[in-house]
Amino acid sequence: MADTAGNTLRLGWLDGLRGLAAMQVVLLHDVFVFLPGIGSAYPLPIHDFWWRGLLTAPFVFLYDGISAVYLFFIISGVALTNAFAVHPFAFLSTVSRRVVRLGLPMAAATILAALFYTLLPNAHLVAHTGSSSLSDTGPVTISLASIAHQIALEGLLAGFDGWSLLPGWISDRLDLVGRAHAFDTPLWTLHIEFCGSLLIMLLVAVRASASRGAYHAICIILGCVFVLSPMGLFVIGHVVASHLRRVKAAKRRTILGAALLGSGILLCSIRITTPISMLWTVLPPPPLGIQGDQATLQKMIGATLIFGGIVLLPVLQKGLECRVARWLGKISFSLYLTHVPLLFTGVAACFVVLDGSLPYGVSVAILSVAGIAASLALAEPFECWIDRPAIKLSRLVGKPSRRIKAPVPVADAI
Predict the structure, then answer these.
(1) What is the pLDDT of residues 70-126, one digit of tens each?
(2) Is the Cβ–Cβ distance between 344 and 139 less than 8 Å?
(3) At what angle do helices 65-84 and 294-311 cross, to 10 degrees?
């Protein structure tokens, strides 16, 4: 761990975990584009689990990008809780900083994606891989108006059609496009990330001003209210933030951590029907917009168990603090924002060139390795020229005067 500004410490394993989760998202899109047969079996059906699940579940988890997104939300809940605790009542400057921090990279990624689709508008349509993801995804029109609309609304503040936390009477009047027709489809999560930031901001203020009993009651109420929404994962991250200290190795904790981690991986890799359906039917629907289905609930539970398992496994935390994982964590936001437009344009165009001249499997192997390498290569300058300056600029927005010592170690917040 290394010192950071504001009397806080960084938990390097959170950065490493976020980096590996970003790679899961990249692999998920690669599998769905080039290996649709494997993608259609994701997650594994429960009736297949007994004879191949134990062997293939870890492999399936490697490209479980959906659960990885839910891990992002838990990590953000932890990081933002401690970042906001320094100035718990600076509401205006905190919101402004989040708009700058998330909005500038989002706008740059949208413009970059529009440029890619302008140069190679049909690559994803003529790349015949058998994947509906290619043919059904991509912007309908490319214009300054559509770019501005996604930057101003869908990309952060309002979300996409069907994926907005705004009340229906507001979102229905904004003419939001579906996320499949976004310039950059991963941007659907930034709206949730921004709203989760506001939720964490309010919880931090309550913790700093209300009694302990009132604060705990509010956390429990919000946890119940958002139990079927990804917003509930921010509450989980907030609650555990003050308890994330280095856990000493102990046999009992190691066994429990391994059990939680293994259970979480299995829940994220297989489809369980009856128990999850029964649980889903008795839980209250969230009051704001997005409500997950049974699969969403199962993966949110799985992601929470995985996070809890890692917390109890110091050996695994040390592995996540290695140089490669920390580097992936540094570029994770940039990688997340830029890999899909590159995959659907440049990588798809290369597949069209190779298709027919090489066996399909060979073409996919070459392009998968080359595409991931290109995505990492693109994320590095994006992080240097866009993401890092956005962080620096966000820190200059507002100058709150009241400062409180942050209580526990943190990781960098996106």
Answers:
(1) 999 999 999 999 999 999 999 999 999 999 999 999 999 999 999 999 999 999 999
(2) no
(3) 60
Distance CA 272, CA 389 (A): 44
Name the residue ranges covered by the structural domains of the chain. 3-283+293-396
Q: Return the closest-CA partner of residue 116 out of 303, 315, 409, 374.
A: 374
Residues 147 and 127: their CA atoms lie apart, in Å, by 25
Q: Which residue has the higher pLDDT, 285 or 375?
A: 375
How many C-beta atoms lie closer than 10 Å to residue 395's C-beta? Answer: 12
Asked, as a colleague might, if the bond just before 43 is cis with ω within 30 of 0, I would say: yes
Helix (H, G, I), strand (E, B) or coil at 10: strand
Note the pLDDT tens digit of each residue in 136-193: 889 999 999 999 999 999 999 999 998 999 988 898 899 999 999 999 999 999 999 9
Taking the C-alpha atoms of residue 189 and residue 163, their distance in angstroms, rounded to an integer, is: 9
Rounded Cα–Cα distance for residues 373 and 136 (Å): 25
Contacts of 117 (CB under 8 A, 6+ apart): 138, 139, 142, 183, 341, 344, 345
- Report H helices in 247-359: 251-269, 274-282, 294-311, 314-320, 323-342, 348-354
